[in-house]
Amino acid sequence: MSTLYEPTIFSKIIDREIPADIIYEDEKCIVIKDINPKARIHLLVIPKKAIPTLFNLKPEDKDLMGHMMLLLPQLAESQGLKGFRTQINTGEAGGQEVFHIHIHLLGN
């Protein structure tokens, strides 16, 4: 995977340099279980394109982000959830720890 940004733990997972519990994968994104879950089900939906934060999104990223949003209810249903929360932390002040956009999907 080529990137304009420094490799993150997520890009290393995507490149299979670091193991992870992969729930789903397609050509645009990968979904893994969070290693420090905050709910019974806590998944991370991660684009394969390395984009550090929402501040770095470009108009050409709208299809990628739409793809990830449409995937969320499918993932929730596959995990047996009747409802769920999503969270995107943006920037250090917003609680972001890994600077590669990702969506948290949480449910009990």
Automatic annotation (TrEMBL):
Instruction: Give me the segments passing through the membrane.
Output: none
Q: Which residues form the HIT domain?
A: 9-108
Q: Where can the motif Histidine triad motif be found? A: 100-104
Mention any Pfam family matching this sequence.
Answer: DcpS_C
Q: Which GO terms describe its molecular function?
A: catalytic activity
Q: What name has this protein been given in UniProt? A: Histidine triad nucleotide-binding protein
The active site is formed by 102
Q: Which InterPro entries match?
A: Histidine_triad_CS, Histidine_triad_HIT, HIT-like, HIT-like_sf
PANTHER family, per the entry? HISTIDINE TRIAD HIT PROTEIN
Domain of life of the native organism: Bacteria
